[in-house]
């Protein structure tokens, strides 16, 4: 791991500010995610050219515009698929997907489950606000967190718990954070980015405009750091932790589950050097000049 230099923080903002005006609502939780993401990257000492930030449709997808470096903006539900492809092409690249709860757990649900199964060495910061903020606050799959629902309808089923779903689907790193505490978020992000497999960080990032229930104050009241004695390598302990927090009406913040998987080397990828031997790429790129 490279060592951070004094100039790294400024490098991460070059070509990002002020050219890209931040379009989030004042007070949006994504500001905290942006600050924490920069802190984590600076702490790790990685340079912009060593990182790819992949965003989807929604407020969360804009995050890649506000940091220097490689960025890709894909379709709704697509960030994990694009991120996986990039990681397969360049295994040495630090690939970070930045997506929302609707992006990931509705149209992107299939990609989410299979990326958990495949366990590529990349991370997802899921900015979870319980609504579709970009399209004026419709319910998302995580709507209903903390609410007592006596009955459900087909249009309003029970909410999806990203942490439980990820563990069930085979993810090897599952953590939660609250964007109102960027320093703690950065601590969690660093661990996620260094994990040798797929890392989910379910970040509670409140929508101040449309979700009037899960507010910043609500998350501060209900969020609670995971006890130091918790063993994240124990799957049963991870489930017990989630059950205990649920019973007490609290949200665990920190690393819930971490168990790196034993893997064999890829049998097929990458072999680009062999496949591209003798091929002149110039004609392909000339169309873009």
Would you mind describing this structure in some detail?
- With 289 residues, the chain is α/β, with parallel strands linked by helices.
- It has one domain: Rossmann fold (3-Layer(aba) Sandwich), CATH 3.40.50.
- 33% of the residues lie in helices and 17% in strands.
- It contains eleven helices and ten strands.
- It has helices at 8-11, 30-44, 79-89, 101-105, 109-118, 162-169, 182-194, 216-222, 235-247, 272-275, 282-286, and strands spanning 51-55, 70-73, 94-100, 123-128, 131-132, 138-139, 173-178, 199-204, 223-225, 251-258.
- Strands 2-1-3-4-8-7-10-9 form an eight-stranded mixed β-sheet, sandwiched between helices. Strands 5-6 form a two-stranded antiparallel sheet.
- The longest helix is centred in the N-terminal third of the chain and has 15 residues, at 30-44.
- 44% of the residues are buried.
């Amino acid at each position: 791991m490279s060592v951070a230099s004094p100039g790294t923080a400024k490098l991460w903002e070059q070509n990002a500010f002020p050219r890209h005006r931040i379009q989030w609502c004042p007070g949006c939780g994504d500001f905290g995610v942006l600050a924490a993401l920069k802190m984590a990257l600076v702490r790790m000492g990685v340079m912009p050219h060593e990182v790819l930030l992949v965003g989807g449709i929604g407020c969360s997808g804009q995050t890649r515009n506000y940091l220097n470096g490689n960025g890709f903006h894909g379709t709704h539900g697509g960030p994990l698929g694009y991120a996986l492809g990039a990681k397969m092409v360049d295994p040495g690249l630090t690939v970070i997907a930045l997506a929302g709860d609707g992006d990931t757990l509705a149209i992107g649900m299939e990609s989410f489950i299979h990326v958990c199964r495949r366990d590529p060495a990349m991370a997802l910061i899921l900015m979870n606000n319980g609504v579709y903020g970009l399209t004026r606050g419709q319910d998302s799959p995580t709507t209903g967190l903390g609410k007592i629902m006596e009955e459900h309808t087909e249009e309003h089923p029970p909410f999806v718990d990203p942490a439980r779903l990820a563990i069930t689907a085979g993810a090897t790193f599952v953590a939660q954070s609250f964007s109102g505490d960027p320093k703690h978020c950065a601590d969690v992000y660093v661990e996620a980015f260094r994990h040798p497999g797929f890392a989910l960080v379910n970040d509670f990032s409140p929508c101040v405009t449309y979700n009037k229930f899960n507010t910043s104050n609500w998350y501060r009241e209900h969020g609670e750091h995971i006890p130091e004695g918790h063993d994240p390598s124990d799957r049963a302990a991870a489930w017990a932790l989630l059950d205990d927090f649920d019973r007490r009406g609290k949200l665990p913040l920190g690393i819930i589950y971490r168990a790196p998987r034993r893997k064999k080397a890829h049998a097929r990828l990458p072999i680009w050097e062999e496949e591209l031997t003798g091929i002149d790429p110039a004609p392909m790129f000339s169309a873009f000049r």
